[in-house]
Design brief:
This protein is α/β, with parallel strands linked by helices and about 375 residues long. It is about 35% helix and about 20% strand. Helix 5 links the parallel strand 11 and strand 12.
Length: about 375
């Protein structure tokens, strides 16, 4: 079976759309890779796949190997160079009236109390991914399928993909508890090895309307026999890049309260970081404590990032093929400069401890 080389399978679920499951999946994968684990991402959000865009695989295509599909490589196992010292004087300047605070420390880039440890010569694990979007002629192609077709596609992804040796396979799912989820749970329970299906990470946002829908996903997991490994609260506040003030745009604490009510671990809250969007949309290394200049002759509202975004997509490893970008380094390398890297280091450590503990109990 194609999952024979996979040690742990972790589902990323939410009963609510728009809470950032694909973003959480991507950052969990990058963080696990930085921790030295080989990682795979299976995107079964058939009608709205986002993983290829986030990983810079939009121009990649799935290839056929002997006996099945081969997932696309985002990066191979390797040793990353030391973190670069960013110079912002050439392209950016500080605000004239209110100088912002200095950029976060390279050793401790965090907004959630977790330190992002960055060592010279960091050994990272490989990262591979597969998605239905990689089989379509263009990213604007619509999938108009009924339930049986979706069910068949999910089963094919679980049985016909030839994964390389993989420590963690993260499965990004669509919102809800319908055909894809039922097919996924049934197929994994029938086809996976004992203890291979480790459990699910539940993603929510702080609002009550989201929490009420996400509760249904926890109940779904219990009905189909999938252990809930923990809850992640996404969009948990916003920290201003210039003044450092934190604002709870969507409230706070809802995910932690929900986790407590179901007696499952709360893995942490993930704040909104505009530089994460800059990284995956424009391929630029995140920079903090600076305000970008508007180019001469540009009209108000005509942002340089928007004007140059197509160039960035063509040249950037974050939006191209996963290779070195004009910024110098892979997506996972540039991610080390993002404040969320420190947040996810703490979340990932908790997740690894839970998964390894569960595996030891199974043995």
């Amino acid at each position: 079976m194609s999952l024979d080389n996979v040690r742990h399978i972790v589902l990323v679920l939410s009963g609510k759309g728009g809470v950032g499951k694909s973003s959480i999946t991507t950052q969990l994968a990058l963080s696990l890779s930085l921790a030295g684990h080989s990682v795979g991402i299976l995107d079964i959000d058939l009608t709205g796949p986002s993983i290829p865009r986030l990983l810079g695989l939009e121009n990649a295509k799935i290839t056929q190997g002997p006996g099945g599909w081969l997932p696309c490589e985002v990066h191979a196992s390797q040793t990353l160079p030391p973190m670069p010292v960013l110079s912002t004087s050439e392209t950016q300047t500080q605000h004239e009236d209110a100088p912002p605070p200095p950029p976060p420390s390279i050793e401790e880039v965090s907004t959630n109390g977790h330190a992002a440890t960055v060592n010279e010569g960091t050994k990272i694990g490989s990262l591979h991914a597969i998605s239905l979007a990689l089989l379509l002629p263009s990213r604007s192609s619509a999938i108009v399928w009924r339930g049986p077709k979706k069910t068949a596609m999910v089963r094919q992804f679980l049985t016909d993909v030839l994964w390389p040796p993989t420590d963690y396979l993260l499965i990004d799912t669509p919102p809800g508890t319908s055909d894809e989820h039922i097919s996924l749970a049934e197929t994994l329970q029938l086809k996976s090895l004992p203890g291979q299906l480790t459990g699910a990470v539940i993603v929510t946002t702080p609002q009550a309307v989201a929490i009420s829908d996400v509760r249904k996903e926890v109940n779904f997991c219990r009905k189909v026999g999938v252990e809930v490994l923990g809850v992640v609260e996404n969009m948990s506040g916003y920290v201003c890049e210039c003044c450092g003030e934190r604002a709870n745009l969507f409230g706070s604490g809802g995910g932690e309260v929900m986790a407590g009510s179901f007696e499952v671990p709360f893995l942490g809250g993930v704040p909104v970081d505009r530089q994460w969007g800059v990284l995956v949309e424009e391929g630029r290394r995140p920079r903090y404590g600076v305000v970008e200049n508007r180019g001469e002759g540009q009209e108000e509202g005509e942002d340089k990032g928007e004007v140059g975004s197509e160039v960035g997509r063509a040249d950037s490893g974050a939006l191209g093929t996963g290779k070195d970008s004009t910024e110098g380094g892979l997506l996972v390398d540039r991610y080390r400069s993002c404040s969320l890297c420190g947040v996810f280091e703490g979340i990932t450590k908790q997740l690894i401890d839970i998964v390894e503990g569960r595996s030891n109990r199974t043995i």
